[in-house]
Amino acid sequence: MEAIQTWVSKNKLTTVGQYRALWASGIGASLAYNSRKRSHLKPSLKLIHARMHAQALTLAVLSGAAVYHYYEKSTMEHGESTHDSAK
């Protein structure tokens, strides 16, 4: 787990760039699910729903990244304050 955290910390912009792939796969998965479901929606509505699902997935991932950034920042500040108080 620590190796993943280190990689994400060092490659933040690369990680953000991968959200586009996540968005595209979310659209594809939603379209595949809706096409197998045999719904009576027009193809345009299926595409709109797929886009909404992909946006929700992207927002969830971005929220997770924000929480991780906050956690990382607070951990670093806490580590520096305990390190300074030890001097």
Automatic annotation (TrEMBL):
<dbReference type="InterPro" id="IPR040153">
    <property type="entry name" value="Rcf2"/>
</dbReference>
<dbReference type="Pfam" id="PF04588">
    <property type="entry name" value="HIG_1_N"/>
</dbReference>
<keyword id="KW-0812">Transmembrane</keyword>
<dbReference type="InterPro" id="IPR007667">
    <property type="entry name" value="Hypoxia_induced_domain"/>
</dbReference>
<dbReference type="GO" id="GO:0005739">
    <property type="term" value="C:mitochondrion"/>
</dbReference>
<keyword id="KW-0472">Membrane</keyword>
<keyword id="KW-1133">Transmembrane helix</keyword>
<feature type="domain" description="HIG1">
    <location>
        <begin position="1"/>
        <end position="80"/>
    </location>
</feature>
<dbReference type="GO" id="GO:0033617">
    <property type="term" value="P:mitochondrial respiratory chain complex IV assembly"/>
</dbReference>
<protein>
    <recommendedName>
        <fullName>HIG1 domain-containing protein</fullName>
    </recommendedName>
</protein>
